[in-house]
Specification:
The protein has four helices and no strands. It has about 100 residues and is mostly helical. The chain has a domain of about 60 residues.
Length: about 100
């Protein structure tokens, strides 16, 4: 019987020098991202998730890292902006009602 390499040479893995592979520029354009209007979650969406993250953010006994994962376009950045905006608004209300400097 012939060796597999001689019968089906296309099935064998090829070894490439990484430096010789073609390259493309980064798809992420941070200048474009800075120009975009950043949004928060719509009022009646992601209620349970936002409440869960909000409770985690103010809890003293929780783990220090909340890992939010998902595919591109899932809305991770929008969720984080929403949480931060809500926490900041809550902090601002408390500090102004207690006469604390901003």
């Amino acid at each position: 019987m012939k060796p597999l390499a001689t019968m089906c040479p296309n099935l064998l893995p090829k070894v490439y020098n990484v430096k010789s592979l073609p390259r493309v520029g980064a798809a992420y354009d941070d200048n474009h991202a800075l120009d975009q209007k950043r949004t928060v979650c719509l009022p009646v969406t992601r209620i349970a998730l936002l409440e869960e993250i909000g409770r985690w953010a103010v809890a003293r006994d929780e783990t220090p890292i909340y890992l939010l994962t998902g595919h591109a376009g899932f809305g991770k950045s929008t969720i984080v902006r929403t949480v931060v905006e809500r926490l900041f608004a809550s902090w601002a209300r408390r500090s102004s009602s207690q006469g604390m400097p901003n």
